[in-house]
User: Fold these one by one.
Assistant:
Number 1:
Amino acid sequence: MNICRANWIARCSAALLLTWCAVSQAQPLRVGLIGPFSGGSGDFGNSARFGAELAVKEINAVGGFLGRPLELVVRDDQAVPDVGRRAAEDLVLKEKVAFTIGFCNTGVAMKALDVFQQNKHLLMVPCSQGTAVTTKYPPAESYIFRIAPPDLLNAKFLIAEIVDRRKLSRVAIFADQTGYGEGGLKDLTAELEKRGLKPAYIARFPLGVTSLHEQMRAARDAGVEAIVAYTVGPEQAAAVKSRLEVGMNAPFFAPWPLSFGSVLENAGAAAVEGTMMVQTIVQDNFNERRASFLARYFKHSNEKRIGSLMAAAQAYDAVHLMLWALFQTKGDYSGDALKQALENLERPYQGVVTTYSQPFTSADHDAIAINMLWLGAWRKGQIEYYYREDAKRAGYVRRKEVR
């Protein structure tokens, strides 16, 4: 943990500890955590879990919150919407946790959002990127916040890269049949329409497919110049393998699931080489904050390869942002108090992904802006910055512009 941040947490705890002594000695502050810790989404789900665990471990090491240790109450949603909703009901209605960090899969999140909204329970989303997650309810009324980039930004970023920067106009969209794929298809199509374009080819497929040969051949025959795939890790692997096997040469783009370690494991280095994806963070050993985080992460998780750096770092930052809000409310963890604090955060948090300075407002519950995104690429089995100039500027912190 950053020494200055650790010292600040310790000082805040000490300053308020006397006032809260009776409460602080009672019970741990219980925090809900929901994610896909088993099944096909387990690679990035467990990265998020390890990231959240590491944050809690480090916070507790410097005194917790007002002397109260944080305790994660973990529920596995298995990437199944109905399971995710039951987990939300359990944490909010039965366990009555103070707040919840949760959801990696958009379809699972959408099924459970009303549990948090109707009970005025603060939900911080560390991974799920579906645009609808933070737009289902108007931000002024919503208790749903997110520290991952919404797919609307991913679509803007990718189409700007493909059409505006590379001057490619025949774009194929590969989207699974989940809410995540549906939302991505909608966002990408809208961005193309702004430029007077339509998708040159659209492929829809269910989760669980192991081959997309037929669709790749059809895209090739349609003369597509670029492919964008909206799906999760196993199906991203199927897409890049099929692209290689049918001799499809069009550049391959995707949002963050293409960066999952399982894609490399399931597809192989040759299939992923050169494919590109949207990232909020890229492993950079020259960035002290990120290098330190990774060293601590691997020590805590005992993993040899991280499933998703984005999931881990965003979940870690999500816990710390909630701690910032708790100090600001002086321990009031009602949904209204936390919502007000997050929308008017008084102190910047120097996180792993970025420095969060007024990340939310009453009109915007997404912490990530388009200027905070990077284009990553698979190169020799590692995710690197696609553009060399981005690698050179990696030490520059991209903050959300205050509006």
Number 2:
Amino acid sequence: MKIKPLAALLLALAAPAAFAAMPPEGWRFDFSAKPAKGHTAVQAGTTYDTARGFGYEPDNNSGNGAAATFFSADVPEGNVAVTVTLGPGTHTIKSEVRRLMLENVTVPAGQSVTRTFVVNTRTPAIAAANGMKAGAVDLKAPRETVQEAWNWDRRLTLEIHGGVDKVEIKPFTGATAVPTIFLLGDSTVSDQPGEPYASWGQMLTRFFKPGVAIANHAQSGETFRDSLARRRIDKIVSQLRPGDVVLLQFGHNDQKQIAAGSGGPFTTYKAELRQHVDMIRAAGGLPVVVSSMERRRFDAEGKPYATLADYAMAARQSAEELRVPYIDLNAASRVLYAALGVEGSKPAFATKDGQIDNTHHSNYGAYLLAKAVAAGIRVAKLPVAAQLVDGFAFDPARPDPFEKFAVPASPRYTNERPLGDEANR
């Protein structure tokens, strides 16, 4: 992946003419030897550059045994509809930093299918809108400016497993706009840049139809306080439209404030949560409180026990006091871990160098928790629940078996553990 330090990102924002503009009607790419009329041909050696505005990213296969190609195209900030035409074979597509869009779509020999999904892209710039002052998100370097730079640049990047025949990218305009589900939280929510780590925020995209977008603004190691200081909530508020939803899940890193004597679940945590709710409401969005999932901890009898009970209680109290929807992911995670058991829960958590990380999840664990969040959206009767994929159902007491989980791993691998929560591995 190309290194894009913060200074380069901000310079690019100040000089948008350096980037090729997406045509008003959108992009239409054809990857075949005989491109269809009205499509732009993409040859195997077409490397991305800013003047062209599209092309393949440099090889990102890092030796972990996985393989994929990465294709990028310049797009305006916001939501775009992506329609792919897939030929024979099995296809999985992720977007930006490993957000799962299509999972193992199988196409029989001699046939082709089309699938559409919605991708949200963004830059660090904050527009003067919805009461926000213009400025920029305070990105963490080098994490967000290098490893996660694809989340902040002026282009859409697709991670393609199995190949594509055609890709069409169309902007939403006016009445065609779809609601957005914004995510704000810590490392268990944020787009993790490489294997073996993953989050439910990266998997949630899989369970929604193209009638809704998901914008993941969560970041590793952070709290409600960090969201305010780094202007992450400001960025979200500046983009809110009526009908948009903001899921708020913090708690893991907030515990460090207790040790530092600078906060607690029933004082600063609740006050900072209220600030977020008030800001979202003032801009016409719908705030939703999500309690943090538990860590992997079992007692002598093999039953999960609580390490975040106070923060889960504070989250519930806040939702009741502020009269906002509540998703009890903490309770759902304990039911899930109990169903998996001491040994069965191990594959749900990231393992690196033989050591299980009992806080951060694997692709499998993140997938299950995303299902739990999606189920919570339905239970809370949020309007966006109408956009859940057909046939969606999830019972944390009866999780999908690990043996049947087949989402391909990404080629990008990291030796760096997600930030935060160092005392609770």
Number 3:
Amino acid sequence: MSETKSSQSPVGDSLLTALISTTTSAAFTATATYPFDFIKTQQQLNNEKVMRKWGIPGNYPNSIAQLYKGGSALVLGSVVKNSTRLIAYNWSTKFMSIDSHGGHNNKTTAPRIVVAGVMSGFIETLWIIPFENVKITMIQNQTLANELKRCTDLGYDITGKTTGHHNVHHTAHKVNKPIYLRQYVSPHAYLSADVVDQYIKHRVRFGGLPSKNKAIEALKVHYNKHPSLTLFGTVKEMYELKGIGAFTAGTFITFTRQIGISWVWLATYNATRQLLDPHTTENNWFGGKHSAIESIGLHLLSSMAVIMVTQPLDVLKTHLQSKNGKSLYHDSLSTAYNLFIRQGPWALFKGSFPRFLKVLISGGMTATVYEYVERMVTAASNQKIFSEE
């Protein structure tokens, strides 16, 4: 019995240690680097040209608390994602292990390890999508709240609500230019059906709306005036306005981005490593003896490559998961086309610098925290309470 117990304990303890270390390092890194995420998302959704045209004050956060708005969703998502990845990978590798001789020593192969990695990556990406949608809405709500406070002197509603002399519900010969051409309409507010029609179809809506749509429009007005600034309040807001679809937006582009990140990072890292040591005979990805400077350089170049290649995908994901993503855009290609035409090619690379800093810092920080927590958990697991020694 003692031999059986001792042979099984390391496996269970190793998984528990890995879980604790993974979730702790994920939560710490996500918290420490979240300000870069906030700034990146805000830069991607802001239209600086339009803001300058209408003299809109900056809508960036004015406190640390505001800078971390949406951080709760990201941290929670990171913990769930990383723990799911570890459990799924551990289960899938065991499930696909081969026992070719009917013995007790199960074995696996390199292709099956790759398949296990793909399976765990697929599952973890599914977890990312809902939390990313919530995070983006929370950032937009904080940004809208700042704009509402700083734009009180403009004399009109920046959410696009038609009131007074801005009313477009007149006869056809009295209709002036659409609202979005006559005033600043915040991209962080829920756009009314009228504004969406003007923005996409360049026409004014006539006639009434169905009762269901009227209820949604009333909710838009309410949440534009009182944007939710808490996690559960934002989830309630999103569900009331869009239903379950509010948490699944951007599914395809998120999978594409995640695949692109992994492929570009690994390919760049391995290619650069081979340039540094072209005569190496080691086949593992991260093999070779490199100095601290070379290791930093490898990580720096890989991070730069990830940003250069996948930044447009990240921008498209942010727009598709924004408050008005479903109303303004049909798919990734139409989103890219509209951004290119309306804001220019550089719109697809907004937020590159803060995202680069996040990617650059996250890798080293995660590894450092993971190693530290792993040592602590391992040391604690070997201690016995109430021991006479």
